[in-house]
Design goal:
638 residues, alpha+beta, Beta-Lactamase, 5 domains, six-stranded antiparallel beta sheet, 17 helices
Length: 638
């Protein structure tokens, strides 16, 4: 349950004047917030019947809220105890400027409703025997009251004969055992016409009283059990620890309700009209939940709706019950709604809710079957507004479509532009070479240098275009997966790079490599770029040494390419995989910074992970991680 309905009150720590009050608090005072703000905090009890207990006894420290309680009387004259937290507010963390109290009644109501639902299930269960029902009722009380033990017992002279027990007591006591009445809390419960609820027995009028089973009794809640034939005994929950929170009026109502149910079950009452006893409360609670909800029968006839749903529909809540739920949805949704009503339990069914003013809401319907007393098979339906979410999804889908169109256009442009640029470049290069040959003896050194620059620039432009085509090819298209023998693939690449390997005097060691699944043309680009980069970026004073190895660690196959080249700063590793981003600008290392970005693109398309570890002058290790690591035999074993 949402906490937005909790009451809030804030006043000055210096003069006690109330500075803020929300609607939930003022409603308890039967006033408006403006009528409360400006009063002195001590005046609330006199003018409005609100009493904040133990306020002057609290030692407030900024940042450390404390549990307290408020007493107030509703319009019907009922007295209520509302749990609250009191906290000191401070601007500097030391000096208290204001005090604020936050009511927690909403949470208590939520817990109470959960307990009621659980009791409803016990009552509606026609298949369980009496002792099982009694045990379940005790367990519900034990959980709700946060106690250690619970008993139901009948009066037998000066003792109580246990009918059912729960909690830690089950280890030492069993039905049929007797506990003494005299001098115990049981005698006081039997003499009282009201429930007894004490969160700290030692600080009450019952100090020194035992529970009849062990001497240390610190908290207790219990009342008499009466059947149609007269008084039976008691139901009691007790603990050897002090409760951190006081018992509330809801706790007293719940213990009385459980006692009535126990008396009815033991008295063999054939008709349990539980829903009639709690109808007004349950109906009121259902209407005020902060969700769009409705109760329907299996045909869709609406029995009740939450106030939030009626507000969203724009219809008086009193006009909705008796209508069919189909009336509030699109006609095209009728088959889906009929199916949901028939099945009862449904999750996230997309529908369209029709508003009275003609607007619509995208909603998801969730439904559960509930048995509430004599009303069997009720459909409790919750509607979640997903209009904004669906609109956001549509916008993302539209953006993805536009992005796909742009990508296709860019790929087409890159391909066409690259091909169209290569022809004039070839002519520029060729005719410049002709000029060098024809005019070599007739021009001066400056002209020769200018022509050399033109040829060199044309060559670099040709290389750049080819790199763009390679990157575009790696980024587009669908993967064609097949088994790839990495030993054969790497050997072929080394043969293609034979001239570069010989010129650099490089040594390449290839360990036994596995067979993997991938797109062979892309995987070839991946390893060709890694090996050629290791040869290119070598130290002048040592021959290149390259090792290609693999290992399977758990669920991951890891393939590494290790070299002893010039390396790079590890801080720049992210930039290394970006296109046209060169880490080494020295002219002796030719290239356009596209090789590693192609490697990263290939791995990304295969859902592989590419990483690098390096340091200047110490070489680099490039690792390809493939998951899952399948049991693929080494290539040599094929």
């Amino acid at each position: 349950m949402s906490k937005t309905g909790n009451s809030v009150l804030r006043w000055s720590a210096t003069d006690g004047i109330i500075r803020y009050c929300n609607g939930s608090f003022s409603k308890k005072c039967d006033a408006t917030p403006n009528e409360i703000i400006g009063k002195h905090i001590d005046q609330l009890n006199i003018d409005n019947g609100i009493k904040i207990q133990h306020l002057n006894e609290l030692k407030l420290i900024p940042g450390k809220p404390q549990t307290n309680s408020m007493l107030w009387t509703s319009e019907d004259g009922s007295e209520h105890t509302e749990l609250a937290t009191v906290q000191a507010l401070s601007e500097d963390g030391q000096t208290i400027t204001e005090i604020q109290i936050n009511g927690l009644e909403e949470e208590q109501e939520h817990s109470y409703r959960i307990a009621l639902d659980a009791l409803l299930e016990v009552v509606a269960d026609n298949n369980s025997i009496i002792k099982d029902k009694l045990q379940r009722l005790l367990d519900i009380g034990l959980d709700n009251f946060s106690m250690h033990n619970g008993i139901v017992g009948s009066t037998m002279g000066h003792s109580i004969e246990l009918i059912r027990v729960c909690g830690a007591l089950e280890l030492t006591k069993q039905p049929g055992d007797k506990i003494p009445i005299d001098g115990s809390i049981c005698s006081h419960i039997l003499k009282s016409d009201k429930a007894i609820a004490i969160n700290d027995v030692q600080q009450s009028d019952f100090s020194g009283v035992c529970c009849g089973i062990y001497a240390e009794l610190h908290s207790v809640i219990g009342t008499q059990v009466v059947t149609d034939n007269g008084p039976l005994g008691i139901i009691c929950f007790f603990s050897n620890e002090v409760r951190t929170q006081p018992f509330t009026s809801q706790d007293v109502r719940l213990i009385n309700l459980i006692a009535n149910l126990v008396g009815t079950i033991i008295g063999n009452e054939e008709q349990l009209e539980f829903v009639s006893q709690q109808h007004d409360y349950y109906q009121s609670l259902f209407r005020t939940v902060p969700a769009m909800m409705m109760l329907c029968n299996s045909d869709g006839l609406i029995l009740s709706t939450s106030d939030l749903l009626s507000d969203r529909l724009g219809i008086d809540p009193l006009r909705i019950p008796g209508k069919n739920c189909h009336h509030f949805f699109l006609q095209s949704d009728k088959p889906e709604i009929d199916k949901a009503l028939n099945e009862g339990d449904v999750n996230q069914l997309p529908l369209t809710l029709c508003i009275e003013n003609g607007d619509t809401l995208d909603i998801e319907l969730n439904s559960r079957i509930k048995h509430i007393g004599s009303m069997q098979g009720v459909r409790m339906i919750v509607l979640a507004d997903v209009t904004e979410r669906n609109q956001a999804i549509k916008e993302v889908e539209e953006q993805n479509k536009q992005l796909a169109l742009v990508n296709r256009s860019l790929n087409q442009f890159a391909f066409i532009a690259s091909h169209d640029l290569q022809e004039p470049l070839r002519k520029i290069h060729q005719f410049c070479v002709f000029l060098q040959e024809d005019l070599n003896e007739t021009v001066n050194d400056d002209v020769r240098n200018h022509m050399d620059v033109i040829v060199s620039s044309a060559n670099r432009m040709t290389t750049l275009i080819q790199d763009v085509l390679a990157f575009s090819s790696a980024a587009k298209g669908q993967l064609v997966l097949r088994d790839i023998n990495l030993n054969d693939l790497v050997s072929d690449i080394c043969s293609e790079l034979e001239l570069s390997i010989a010129e650099s005097n490089a040594r390449i060691d290839i360990d036994e490599l596995p067979t993997i699944q991938g797109d062979s043309s892309l995987v070839r680009q991946l390893f060709a770029n890694l090996i050629s980069n290791s040869i290119k970026y070598r130290e002048d004073n040592r021959d290149p040494e390259i090792n290609i190895a693999s290992q399977c660690d758990g669920n991951t196959l890891k393939i590494t390419v290790t070299d002893n080249g010039i390396g790079f700063d590890q801080k720049l590793v992210t930039r290394a995989f970006e296109p046209f981003n060169r880490l080494h600008t020295d002219k002796k290392y030719k290239g356009n910074g596209i090789g590693l970005s192609i490697c990263a693109t290939v791995c990304e398309k295969h859902d592989w992970k590419l990483s690098a570890e390096s340091s200047p002058g110490s070489g680099s290790v490039f690792a390809i991680e493939i998951k899952p690591c399948k049991s693929i035999p080494l290539a040599s074993d094929q």
